Here is the input.
Amino acid sequence: MKKSILLILLLVSLKSIGQKSELNITIDERIETIYSIAFLDNYFLVSKHDNLYKSKLKKKLNALKNHKAVVLFGTISKKYGFNFHKVTHWALQFGKFPELNKVREVAKPYSFVKNEKSYLIENFKKEFISFNQDSLFQEYLTEIKPLNQKVINQVKTSKTIQELPTYLEKYYGTELGSYNLILSPLVHSGGFNAEFIENGKKEVYAIIGPNGEIDFIPYFDQDYLETDMILHEFGHSFVNPLMDKYDKEIESLKNKYFTKKLEQSGKNQGYKEWKYIFNELLLRATTIKITEKNFGIEKAKNLLDFEKSIGFELVENIIEILNEYENNRDKYPIFNKFYPILIERMK
Here is the structure.
């Protein structure tokens, strides 16, 4: 009997080892609710593209422009730091409306607003639920359901999108608990990474906005979505923990590389401190290498040319060092082991 049980467990284990990590693709009610509020507030990170979603929101929700949720969002986003990734990170902690119970923990907890104003985020949660109910958001979601399906289906036609978790895991040599892609028709042309712990496993999210529209339907270009945004946003979850671990070593590179020009280029991209700029440079370099390996030299070159055009020429230096990692995977089976070597090479 014991031998049978052991055999079954072994077969289950072998099956799970062979399974590919799946990429879950959705349009999320929590993100669409909070970005509808942001849209009514003229938030600077709402998509600049005209689309059918905006037309429907103007028609259905324009009367709610002075709703308490919209007013409070404007206050905490402009005055108290509730912006960028914090907006999506905060919303995804919760379960379904109207209860909006907290169902997962942020992997690396932090304050969503300035500490002395923490009570405002609690107030906003109440108004967030209220807005969802007052706006009859469920009716809006029912109305746009066919539109959402068109957007999701367009993305799912790609033959490579479900391979992206595998590309990432092979390159970095480690795995994550789950990969969740949230497409948002209202988010700016770009994206955010979010990490949570649920049932002891790390859940990783990439929240990404369209980079265009066709016939007023949001469009996610395949190269933009896959070789740029998804590899980049999920890549944060592999690279960011190393930034924290090797904080002092990264600081030791500052005098050599953190020029006035790079500082300005970093600010233009939304990064002020050297360690975050370094982390971003490294992540963009690994993204280019993964792209080269799986999508070809031409697409990788296009990404590198873009990095150079925005003042991130240092990405090319890091790419050269990454060749050592790729050529010695028997010595460096996981990226974590090569990270300190990379820093030494940069010195």
In short: The first strand starts at residue 23 and ends at 26. The chain is about 60% helix and 10% strand. Residues 1-17 have pLDDT under 50 and may be disordered. The two ends are 59 Å apart (CA to CA).
